[in-house]
Structure of Aspartyl/asparaginyl beta-hydroxylase:
Amino acid sequence: MTRTTLLAQADAAFDEGRPVDGLALLRELNKHYSDDAASWHRQAIVEEQIGSPAQAGLAHYRCIEVAPNNALGYLYAGHWLQRQQQTNAAAALYSIAQDLDASILHLAHHQQISEQARLRSSEANLTLRHVLSKQHRDLCAKMIDAERIADAKWVQTNDQAIHFKSKNFAPELFYIPSLAATPFHECADCNWAQEITEKSSEIQQELTRALEQKLSQDSLRPYLSGAFAKHSDLSELANSANWLAMDLYKNGELNTQIAGLFPTTLKALQSAPHYTLDSQPFEIFFSLLKPGQQIAPHYGQSNHALTAHLALDIPPNCHLTVDTINREWKAGELILFDDSFLHSAHNNSDQTRVVLIFSIWHPDLSENEKTAIQQCFQARQDWLNQRQSQIKTLLALTD
């Protein structure tokens, strides 16, 4: 029989109150025409109600296999796994769904969505928060001198309400409540800062020479990827040449293509207490903000690291705002600030503003606490990396 005929017969069976016949026809349909995610999804739901766990799991698996970028498939498959007491696997699928569609775990108040989807969304939200928050607390319980880190909040997935210290303070990823919070930190007591500022002219010269070479020009990238087009605050600069970056380190990896052009820069930065997730600085880059541009107010990722700006090429009428405090860059000077506070950058001149940016550890953290943070981030990354393998749990269900 054709796809159309099988589908029509299945619809008729359900309409006439013959669900067992309808399910048999859906199975037959998907056996012969296995490329329709909606059909697999429908079979999975009916299998859950009157079929078998193994067949439901298989149908959910096939739905994801056919439409791997459809968040709804992961939401429903995760819910089924949770009903089978596979909570950790369910959480993995919920997390994938959230990556595909940030709204998928927040459907509870969307009345245009089916009640079934809203209930699953609400349960998925609670489950993912519980699983990840418990993982964090269990991990920190095994660490030394990590009480403050155990109390830290993964903001997007925390299972308890979060109360920030200020209306203009809201790290978006990781928050340690007991760390001192102040918009700007002074560099006067930082022994490492002097070495960097003393080399600022040479650092500027290295950048100028590098920009004359095609290799370095090719290394310039829009600081914000196209993904930020959906970010209401920063969408105007998404994938834009109006805010460019040249990376020396990005995500802990040295840019070996151009590192040889910056020996003085890299040597001057060696003594800084760089924020690291392993043994390398997490980020060091030159930031070029074009004339007449501004970076809209936004929040950073976490409060366990501070952002450092070494001012290099600074035209008039350029300033940085953190919280409600404006501070002008001055060539050769270093500014330290906590980007957990609402912050923005403004270039009201007709020239490009250039600063060297890197991150350092919050000075109030102990060495044990730094290690604990690194372990927490590594554990979270390891968990994220293994999510896809959990999809096969759907195939392990038996009748």
